[in-house]
Structure formats: C-alpha cells, structure tokens
Amino acid sequence: MSADRVTVDKSGWVVGRVLADQARTRGDEPFIRFEDGPMHSYAQAHALSNRAGNGFAGIGLGFGDNVAVMLNNRLEYMWTWFGLSRIGAVHVGINTALKGTFLTHVLSNTKARVGVFEPDYLPWLADIEDSVPDMRTVYVPGDAYDPGNLPAFKRIEVRCFDEIMAGAADEIQLAVSYRDIGMIMFTSGTTGPSKGALMPHGHLYLFGLCMQTHMGMTTADHYYIPMPLFHAQGILMQTYATLITGSSAVLVKQFRATTWIDDIRRHKATLANLLGVMTDFVLRQPAKATDTDNNLRMVCAVPVTDETLENLRTRFAIPKFNEIFGMTECNLPVCRPLDAPDEAGCSGRVWDEFFQVIIADPETDEEVPMGEVGEILVRPRESFCFMQGYNAMPERTVETWRNFWFHTGDAGRMDERGYVWYIDRIKDTIRRRGENISSFEVEAVLLDHPAIAEVAAVAVKAEEGGEDEVLVCIILAEGAERPVPEDLLDFCTPRMPYFAVPRYIEYVSEIPTTPTAKIQKNKLRDRGLSAAAWDRDAAGYKVRR
Questions:
Q1: pLDDT per residue over 427-438, tens digit each?
Q2: What pTM value is reported for the model?
Q3: Which residues contact 24 (CB under 8 A, 6 or more apart)?
Q4: One-character DSSP codes across 194-226
Q5: CATH architecture of the domain formed by 15-200
Q6: Fold assignment, 325-427
Q7: CB 405 within 8 A of CB 377
Q8: What is the DSSP code string of 418-463?
C-alpha cells in the first residue's frame, strides 16, 4: 500500500449493521418484495431479521457456527442471512441442484449441525443422512412445512421455520466485525472436490459496493433479481448492492426467459443482470412490439459479443451496459467505469482503490508486456476484502495464493488504457450456463460405476451456440461390457446436479497423461469433439432435475 493511501473505514461493513442503519434512515421506504407479494420496507426487514437472529440464538446457535441454507429464492432466505449475521453465525449457501456426493461434501466440509431447507430437497438429504453425522436439525419454511409429507429420517429432526421467526424483534447487540467470516460459498474444483471460500463481512460488502459504484445506483433504482441467492450474483451483487444503496428490488423464484422483459416492465425495474447463456435465451424469444416499453437504464451482461450487445440494445432499448470481472474468492477487482464506452468483452479498469491486478505468465507469475495474453492475478489493497482461504483445505489455499498473488485461472490481456479484456479459462474448471462444475466430482461419480476404469471430464464447445458442455472420455474396466449411454446418464442423474450431467460421452482406449500420470486435459479440450462422441441432445435424452 502506498504511503499516500488512507485506510478505508470498514467498521460498518456487516450486513446486519447495514440493514439496521438503513432501517433508521430509510424506515418505511420500500426495500424488497418476492414476485407479486407485498413490498417489505427497510424497517420491516430489520424487525424480521432480528426475529430470525434471536430465533437462531434461541436454539443454541452462536458466533462462528455454520448453518446450511438450501432454499429457492424466497424472502426467508433474506431473513436467514440477515439474522445469522446479527449473531455472528456463518451462512453456507448451497446450490439447490446438489445431491449425492456433491451435497455430502458441502455438509461434511462445513460440519453444519443446523440447516434451512426447501422440502423438495429433503429426500436428497435423507439419502445421505448416514454420511453427514454433524447435521442434527433442519428447518422448513412455514408455507411449505407439511409434517405428514416428510421423508423418513433416522436421526435428523425436521421442524418448522416459523419457530425461528417467533423470536423477539428486539435489537441484537452482539458486536460482529467486518473481519469475521459471514459466509461460505462453494466454488468448483478440478484436482479435488469443490472448495468453500471463507468470506469475511468486508469481502461481502465490497461486492455490493462495487455494483453500487459502477452501476451508478441511487435510491430511485429498482433491481430485478432472478439470479439464485446461493450465487454471488443474486445475493451480493444485486441484493446487497440494493441494501447498501437504500434502493428497492423485486426477487423472483427463478430466471424465466419467456417473461424476462415482461416481468421487468411489470415491476418497473431500472436495473437487471444477465449471465452467460441467459442472454441468448432472452434473445431467442419472439420479439414483441412492447419490448422497448420498459424502465431499464442499465444491464450488467457477462459475457457478450458485439452482436449480442447490439441486439440487446436495439431489441429492448437499453441505453447502457456494464461488464465486470470477478470471482467468489477475489471479489470484483475489474469494473467498467460509468463513463466508459460499451465494449463487448472489455471488463473495465482495475478498481485500484481496493485491488492490484497484473497479467502474468501462468508458468512464472511474472508480468507479461502490455497487450499480451496471460493469467489474471489479483491481490487486495484492503484487509478482509478478500476470501480468507478455503474452508478446511489449507493446501488448496496455499496453491491458489502462489507467490502472494491469487491465481484466477482465467486468461486476459490489458490494453494501453489499463482496461482488462477477458479471454478464456486456463484451468480445467467447466463453466456451463452460469454454473461452475467440478470435473473432479463428475469423475468421482462415474468411477463408482463398475464398468468404468478411468474417466476424464472436460469442457468442450457445443456444435451450436459455442456454449461450454461436459464431455467425459471413458476407459472401460477389463472385461466389462460397454454401458448404453442412456443407462450411464441414468446412473449419473441421481448422483449429481442436473447441470453437471455430461452431454457428450466417448469411449476411448487411452487418456493422455504426463510422465507423473496426471491427465492432460488440455489435450482433450484442444482436440474437442470427435465423431465418436455420443450426444445426449441429439439422442433426445432429457435430464431429470
């Protein structure tokens, strides 16, 4: 840090405290509603969050306790997050598609003994009950709680979330710091299971502050939020940004391309985000004369091409776009200034008030000349504005922080203006339709199949649209009959999230490896799809959720 920099006052950077401050200053002003339900003011949200915090404290939860949250988008998600923040507990957001070993890993890694679950996901929890001995009690939202329609658990007790919300609305006085861990969010692995990023409150706050700053948010804005709240996009970049700004938002259960612009019009939204293939889905809908009839002033769309940017602009009369570069672990270190031109693929400039970014040779970590492509490396300029490591994975933490730089695994270049352009991934992580997929975990499931001896999962470009899809290359066990591809996917479906189920299957005689027996996935990616690869979409196979 240079001598002329003044350390930022981060004392108020705790979500529960931010909400309390907004309740005092904004009071009855609108904050958030779910779908077409009633709008909750800042004061109402604060009172409900206190009830949740006191309710959680009343069942014995306290500072540093991890709580597993596997809910669809709903207001109870908000009260849970805010309430846990008030008592210093840690919110563990779980992707609602996880099941089998994927879900077992998250619960085992965090050792959560209390959860808040949607009833739809309780059967998946019951399936792995013996593998998660720490989990003791699960709460189900009151509007979905039906004690006569619960799976049979041997040990885990299922209770109604209304019991938590029966806590007192009294102000909670416990001191929680921006330095304390507020959330664990899991991100995909390649050489191992998914990693839980330990996110201090300062880190969480900065996600929202970045969006407020670079989207030019004011109290007049109304954010449309269809992104899942277990992702940083939904809970931090949109919801937290709304809270920090003192503006308002509408939360919907899920993204629906068919009604995207109609919902935005109906809710009079001024801001929205589009991630990955969501943009393509929106543009594929039949055009309507009313498409330009909306209040949007800016959309954050990542990634976009020149063509899709222009199509969005003309189709929906969107006056301004923004792009960013960030990750769960390293926040949003590259952002496009408000006065910058809309350039597809340009993530913007380094937010140098809080971060340092270089483009480096991925082998040496030495900075490359301007304009050349290298790996994007990041480090913070303010304490506790970055993840504090991977939960219970010290080796992975050290590996990622090589030479005191966080290695994003993404390739980019920096132009003469200091603007960063995202190019592609360097790591073996598979990113499909906005979801990060652990190749290691996909492979682990398939290796449980008795007919499979070796397997490698990689990202390949689909023949249409250029979207990443999952290809698995399989070597059969000696003497085993080749499984019918549909049967193999039937094996995968109950054991992994729907988005991780491979689209392409190829049986091979060998998989390229290094002299130390490490699979050379770069060779498989570079080779791409071969004529021998079976395509589930072409075969008409539908993955069950």
A1: 666 778 777 787
A2: 0.87
A3: none
A4: -EEEEEEHHHHHHHHHHHHHHTT--TT-EEEE-
A5: 3-Layer(aba) Sandwich (3.40)
A6: Luciferase; domain 3 (2.30.38)
A7: yes
A8: SEEEEEEE-SS-EEETTEEE-HHHHHHHHTTSTTEEEEEEEEEE-T
